[in-house]
């Protein structure tokens, strides 16, 4: 079923993001995690997509199995950087055959072995090109696009970033899922600005629990998300006193508070970045009042 229709039936909700394990030996454990997380009754689950072909086949097989064997509603991530229209169309045809009706349209990152990659050289330059392509060729598909409460690392300004967000929605985005953030004011300001631009698509906030001090540092370096000073200090103090176990406790407590505040103040639901870890997500879900 299409996610926009599911959202009309149930709010607030929890949804989950998984990434495909690269090694097949890890798949049984992955599906055990997914089975355990069914307890949270997620509205949908998304599955990431490897840049330049890394895990694309894995994404397809996993969304098939989540739909067929586990009765979950999957959303496949799809990146278009360096891809031909024929390859994109073939992937979407496979989703259609698998009765999967939801896609997250992404530009994606350049291949790791090509630092001088020219984005303008391909058939798809932007995520909006992909959203438009999907709507034209597969109109029955629901298309999600990404939103950035903190501007995209390549964006020169907030207005520029908002402009491109609107372009993605106008091209075919039915709803938005945000990049992770840790200050809820960023989300509410982002939504308010979009509404002022006559963009009324639902905006689902993405929440990531910090489970170790190294993951906090990795997040900061990877996507440019900022961690509020008080929270970062609490994480560092916890690490000094009790190591990563103490950091995990502080991180989970913060994630629960963040998610609850988002829901209590009008977010349609929360998209939880699971990191393929069942225990942390179950703990968050058990404490949320949804």
TrEMBL record:
Q: Which GO terms describe its biological process?
A: methionine biosynthetic process; tetrahydrofolate interconversion
E.C. numbers? 1.5.1.54
What does this protein need as cofactor? FAD
SUPFAM superfamilies reported for this sequence:
FAD-linked oxidoreductase (SSF51730)
* Gene3D superfamilies recorded: 3.20.20.220
Pathway of action: Amino-acid biosynthesis; L-methionine biosynthesis via de novo pathway; One-carbon metabolism; tetrahydrofolate interconversion
InterPro entries with a match to the protein in the record: FAD-linked_oxidoreductase-like, Mehydrof_redctse-like, MTHF_reductase_bac
Q: Is Flavoprotein one of the keywords?
A: yes
**Entry keyword set:** Amino-acid biosynthesis, FAD, Flavoprotein, Methionine biosynthesis, NAD, Oxidoreductase
Q: Which CDD domains match?
A: MTHFR
User: What Gene Ontology cellular-component terms does the record carry?
Assistant: cytosol
Protein origin, superkingdom:
Bacteria
Asked if the keyword Amino-acid biosynthesis belongs to this entry, the reply reads yes
In Gene Ontology terms, what is one molecular function of this protein? methylenetetrahydrofolate reductase (NADH) activity
**Could you tell me what reaction this enzyme catalyses?**
(6S)-5-methyl-5,6,7,8-tetrahydrofolate + NAD(+) = (6R)-5,10-methylene-5,6,7,8-tetrahydrofolate + NADH + H(+)
Q: Enzyme group, top EC level?
A: oxidoreductase
Q: Which family does it belong to?
A: Belongs to the methylenetetrahydrofolate reductase family.
- Cite the PANTHER family for this sequence: METHYLENETETRAHYDROFOLATE REDUCTASE (PTHR45754), METHYLENETETRAHYDROFOLATE REDUCTASE (NADPH) (PTHR45754:SF3)
| Protein name per UniProt | Methylenetetrahydrofolate reductase
The source organism is Paucidesulfovibrio gracilis DSM 16080
